[in-house]
């Protein structure tokens, strides 16, 4: 299936839900937010939220740093 992830089309091979997608994309940070088709999905619902061909996914994650 093909998803648009952060504005870029990407072929996804084995993911059926958001939790699996994050694993496939090697995003292991517990501090990330995911929106599916412009709707934010709480992390507690990632495993239950199915993804489909042509879905639009936005993923942001926190990056630490400072002075």
Outline of the structure:
The protein is mostly beta strands and 67 residues long. It has one helix and five strands.
Largest sheet: 5 strands, mixed
Helix content: 10-25%
Q: Largest beta sheet: what is the strand line-up?
A: 2-1-5-3-4
CATH architecture: Roll
Shape: globular
CATH superfamily: Beta-grasp domain
The whole-angstrom Rg is 12 Å
The total beta strand count reads 5
Ends distance: 42 Å
Name of the CATH first level: Alpha Beta
Beta content comes to 25-35%
Helical segment tally? 1
SSE ordering:
EEHEEE
Average pLDDT, all residues: 93
Which regions contain 5 or more consecutive residues with pLDDT less than 50? Answer: none
Number of domains: 1
CATH topology: Ubiquitin-like (UB roll)
Structural class designation:
mainly beta
């Amino acid at each position: 299936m093909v998803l648009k992830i952060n504005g870029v089309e990407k072929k996804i091979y084995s993911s059926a839900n958001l939790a699996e997608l994050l694993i496939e994309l090697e995003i292991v940070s517990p501090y990330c937010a995911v929106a599916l088709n412009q709707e934010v999905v709480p992390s507690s619902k990632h495993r239950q939220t199915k993804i489909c061909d042509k879905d639009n996914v936005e993923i942001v994650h926190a990056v630490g740093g400072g002075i």
